């Protein structure tokens, strides 16, 4: 509305107001420097695993032939796979790598080092939390949880939702027919950031203690 009003004013007044608007815009805009990890991480073509398959007994089940497994009934192997996946959930950066975030995060006790998590690791933490909530009785056999447990789970679900919408993956998911029904062929090939490279970068900066 403000811009529409400016356009119908006299040229001199219009110019003056546009200059004021431009200066106010520059004063309030927040310049965010590139994340230091982005320039060194490549992309890969990655075929997704999983998907529903028709088993020999005629029942539908999940294709679970990939390793390691991250889902399924609770097991030590699955828990260890998640621990490994999240081993760089918190990292510490310093120097040039910290320039874009040092005023917005926690400074380490020794000074001039700063703690953060990459969004991908925080989202994985959230998936792990929701995974454990599905098998609540196994992971919380006493039924005792922090008073904010439900809020934590809800917040993680909402973070995952926002992360998915933010990424806006446009990979086509095709369908196939079995009898009268159709099912998504979720094992499509996606263009992904190279998680192995990304995770190695994070592991080299892994936080060794909680703040």
UniProtKB/TrEMBL annotation:
By its UniProt entry, which Pfam families does this protein fall under? UstYa (PF11807)
Task: Tell me which Gene Ontology terms the entry assigns under biological process.
Answer: mycotoxin biosynthetic process
Keyword check for ATP-binding, yes or no: no
Q: Does the keyword Signal apply?
A: yes
Which positions make up the signal peptide?
A: 1-16
Q: Which family does it belong to?
A: Belongs to the ustYa family.
The protein's name in its UniProt record: Uncharacterized protein
State the organism of origin. Glarea lozoyensis (strain ATCC 20868 / MF5171)
């Amino acid at each position: 509305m403000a811009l529409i009003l400016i356009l119908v004013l006299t040229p001199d007044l219009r110019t003056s107001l546009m200059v004021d608007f431009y200066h106010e815009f520059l004063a309030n805009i927040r310049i965010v420097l590139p994340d230091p990890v982005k320039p060194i991480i490549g992309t890969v073509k990655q075929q997704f695993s999983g998907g529903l398959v028709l088993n020999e007994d005629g029942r539908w089940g999940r294709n679970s032939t990939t390793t390691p497994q991250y889902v399924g009934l609770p097991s030590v192997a699955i828990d260890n796979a998640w621990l490994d996946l999240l081993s760089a959930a918190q990292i510490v950066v310093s120097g040039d790598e910290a320039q874009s975030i040092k005023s917005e995060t926690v400074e380490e006790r020794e000074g001039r080092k700063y703690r953060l998590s990459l969004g991908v690791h925080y989202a994985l933490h959230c998936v792990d939390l929701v995974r454990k909530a599905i098998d609540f009785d196994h992971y919380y056999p006493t039924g005792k949880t922090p008073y904010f447990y439900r809020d934590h789970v809800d917040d993680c679900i909402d973070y995952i939702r926002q992360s998915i919408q933010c990424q806006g993956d446009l990979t086509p998911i095709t369908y196939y027919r079995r009898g009268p029904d159709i099912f998504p062929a979720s094992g499509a090939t996606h263009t992904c950031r190279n998680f192995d490279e990304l995770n190695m970068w994070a592991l080299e900066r892994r936080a060794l203690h909680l703040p």
